[in-house]
Description:
Elements: H1 21-25, E1 26-30, E2 35-37, E3 45-46, H2 59-69, H3 79-86, H4 92-100, H5 108-112, E4 123-127, H6 145-154, E5 157-159, E6 162-164, H7 174-186, E7 196-200, H8 208-219, E8 226-231, H9 237-252, E9 258-264, H10 270-275, H11 281-290, E10 297-305, H12 313-324, E11 334-339, H13 343-347, H14 361-370, H15 376-393, H16 399-416, H17 420-423
Parallel strand pairs: 1-4, 4-7, 7-8, 8-9, 9-10, 10-11
Antiparallel strand pairs: 1-2, 2-3, 5-6
Amino acid sequence: MTYEIFPGKKIFPIKTDTxxxxxxxxxxxxxxxxxxxxxxxxxxYKIDPENFQDFHNLPEKIQAREKMLQGxxxxxxxxxxxxxxxxxxxxxxxxxxxxxHGLDKIPxxxxxxxxxxxxxxxxxxxxxxxxxxxxxxxxxxxxxxxWNDEIRKYGDIEIGNFKKTFHIASNDRYQRMISDFWSYxxxxxxxxxxxxxxxxxxxxxxxxxxxxxxxxxxxxxxSSLTFNMITNMMLPHKKFVEKMxxxxxxxxxESILQLELTASLDCWGPQQEYVRWGLxxxxxxxxxxxxxxxxxxxxxxxxxxxxxxxxxLPELIEKINHWNKKRSPENFIEHSFDLVVGEPQKVxxxxxTVFGGGVFDxxxxxxxxxxxxxxxxxxxxxxxxxxxxxxxxxxVKNTERIKTLQAFLDELDRRRKCDWRTLFPWxxxxxxxVS
Length: 435
């Protein structure tokens, strides 16, 4: 079957109380591990290397869609949105549905059968490998070669139930899967219906597969495609400009619709350089501000909300508001965010819910007060932040996990020769005595 670019704007047709567009439209592929998921919060599943083209329709994914058709929560990570919604917040599921109205994000099979569970993804997110120049405190050797190098040098980190261990590449068919991936897009001209191609890492600007991706879309034109690159922006400025000029060429030749550059940044100041170890804010800002007057690029900033970033997140919001004065209202900088993902972040205290209510209430209030509401997208983002704040406020303190965080940071300081207590004095206390 050869897919046509379907005309008009479609709305997600499944209306049950648990239905999530991501389960149908989104597919994340991690070629470094050989696994896939349909949301970054859900459990990944192993791709059958002998049947790569079924990565979006594995039995587990189809079962999750069937449960959603029946109004059930599928589990396996979907509890996150369930908990946010139970607390009256705007979950990822609701936010995606809110933003899907009027957008072409519906798999073509649903246009024929609104209950179809075997479908073609519209949003394709790809992790090629873990090559990275940062070792963020909440990250992992699986996603960061820099973390892996540090673990190799100093050894594994083990504190109670929390572990960071050396990562050995788990996909010995990596090169074959890369070939299968490009073949998947070429088969039946699937590349024509992809609306969002999202590239992650490691650090995408450092990966040779970025050049493969640019070559592919140059020779497989899709003028409806948004190429979304997630990057830490830590490339020397001259090299950064050279990469961006390649994207500009793709837009001008109508090989793609636009670049959506999502720059990762969680807060501002020396606290951010500690959390995203290896980051230089001066370089980050130089590269980001060079993009401000580029109309062919949609700019976004994504923040990972952790225990160590909430208190200086307001300073970042103020920066974003300042930068938006240099952008046109229809091309403002979108700010997205998530609480740190995964059970390890709770075990090691990086997840703010381990502190219970009260610790971050004023910080969230400052953030929410600073967030603009000039557009519907900004209003939705503010609602989402309010939901995150409620989720944290209604949580219960876990002193053991807070102590694990303190011990983890002590070990990082020993290895990296820094001092967390000077940057996070609010954390330097006996939490058994804090009511």
